[in-house]
Amino acid sequence: MSRSSLSRRLLLALPAAALAGRARANPPLDRTARIIVGAAPGGGTDSVARILAERLSGRYAPQVIVENRPGASSRLGAEAVKAAAPDGTTLLICPMPVLALYPHVLPRTTRYQPVADFTPAATVGELAYGLVVRRDHPATDLRSFIDWARAKGDVTFAPPVAGAPQHMLGLALMRAAGLNVTVVTYRASTLAMPDLIAGRLDSYMSHMAEVAPQVRGGQARLLAVSSEARLPGFPDVVTFAEQGFPQVTASEAFAVMLPAGASPGVVAALNAAIADAVAQPAVRERLAQLQMTPLVLSPAEMGARLAREFAAWGPAVRASGFTPEE
C-alpha cells in the first residue's frame, strides 16, 4: 500500500473515530439521573444500584446517583418513581415482586399498578431462594425434611417478612407436601436466621444472598433451591423441582423501571447502557458475590415477564390464605 493511500484511509477514519469519541463523551441525558432504591443503604438492592450507578455515569447520564427511600417493603421508592417526570432522570431498581406481588398482598396500601404506572427498561440479574435448616438438623435434603416434619406432626417455618415471595412459596411447598405448618413472622428480616441457628425455628426460606454466607460458614444447611437449574455456587444442592415440587420454582429478577410515558429512545438507551454494564467481567463478578445470575431482558421481554408474574401471584396469594396485616 502506498503512503498516500494509507494517508487517505487514516483521514477517512478520523471523522468516524471522532464521532465515536463524542458519542461516549455525550451520554443520552444531559442531566444527573438518580436511581431510587426503596430500601436502606447496605442491602442487596442498594448494592446492585451502586454498581449500576458507577457504570451508567458517563454512559447514560453525566452522573448517576443512588437515592434511598426505605419504607413500606420498598413500596415508597416505587411510589416516588411513579410520581416522577418521565424524562429518564428518575429510575427505579427493585426486586420484581415489589411490583408483581405486593399489589396482591397489600392491596389497600399499595398505591401503584405495575403495568400501568411504569415503563420497563431492563433487568440486571436474578436471585434464587433457598430453604435452610440448622446445621445439625437430622434432615439432609428436602425429602428427609418432609419425612421428619410428618413424624414431628407440626413444623415451624419463617419467611424474611410476612407476605414476601418466600412466604407464598413456603406455604405452597408445605401444602403440596401435606405438612402442618406454623408460620412465624418477624418484624425485621434480620431476626429469623438467628432463631434458626439457635434451634428455635425449624425452617427458613430466604434469598440466596442471605442464605449462602450462613451455609458456607457452617451455620445452616441448604436443602433445596428455587432456581430452574442448580446454582453454580452450590452444584450439589438439588432444586425443588428435582425433588418433586416444581411449583416452588421461582427467582427474583432485579428490575429497572422508568415512570410511565418514558420515550422509546430513552428506554432503548438505558437498556443498552445496562446491557453494556452487565457484560463487563468486573460487574458480573460483583453480581456473583451477591449470589445473582446476570440477566438483561429487553424492555418487551421484561414487560411480558412482569405481566406474567403479576397475573400468577394473584391466584397464589388467594390459595395461600394469607391475610395482610394492614
Automatic annotation (TrEMBL):
Signal is among the record's keywords: yes
Q: Could you identify this protein by its name? A: Argininosuccinate lyase
- Homology family: Belongs to the UPF0065 (bug) family.
List the source organism. Roseomonas mucosa
A Pfam short name: TctC
As given in the record, the signal peptide range reads 1-25
Keywords assigned by UniProt, alphabetized:
Signal
- State the InterPro entries in the record: BUG, Bug_dom1
Q: Does the keyword Signal apply?
A: yes
- UniProt superkingdom: Bacteria
Q: Which Gene3D superfamilies match?
A: Bordetella uptake gene, domain 1 (3.40.190.150), Periplasmic binding protein-like II (3.40.190.10)
